[in-house]
Design a protein that fits this description.
alpha/beta, about 130 residues, elongated, about 25% strand, three-stranded parallel β-sheet
């Protein structure tokens, strides 16, 4: 069975955020296209848990976090992240296939290491020399 979790409550009661049939104690895996900071995923899992289901795993196609590593917000909420791919893998494949030059790969790695500092060094997005 599949459920859909709304962004805002519709109606009332324990299933105000949920569309579909969810039984008490049912195990649920949240499936998403991508994840970055995890805040929205924690809210969705909390809604599922509030409806009486058990949800401890999120499956994501792409982990958009710069490091590609685990997510502290999810860990704190007792949620395991399973991502099919992430930035480190994407860069490795892109480099191996010659999609980016070595210099482009280094610029992307610099950005992923510290996006605010990278942008600051280039005087922000409005600078024509970027």
């Amino acid at each position: 069975p599949m459920i859909y979790v709304r962004k805002k409550p519709r109606g009332f009661g324990r299933n105000a955020l949920l569309e579909g049939h969810l039984q008490e104690g049912q195990r649920v895996v949240l499936v998403e296209d991508l994840i970055f900071d995890g805040q929205s995923k924690v809210r969705v899992v909390e809604s599922i848990r509030a409806a009486g289901a058990l949800c401890h795993d999120v499956l994501s196609v792409f982990n958009y976090a710069p490091s590609g590593q685990g997510n502290p917000l999810l860990s704190q909420a007792n949620i395991r992240l399973h991502a099919l791919t992430n930035w480190p893998v994407l860069l490795e494949v892109a480099q191996a296939d010659g999609f980016f030059t070595p210099q482009q790969i280094e610029v992307i790695k610099e950005f992923l290491a510290d996006p605010p500092a990278w942008s600051q060094r280039r005087q922000g997005p409005g600078d024509a020399s970027v």
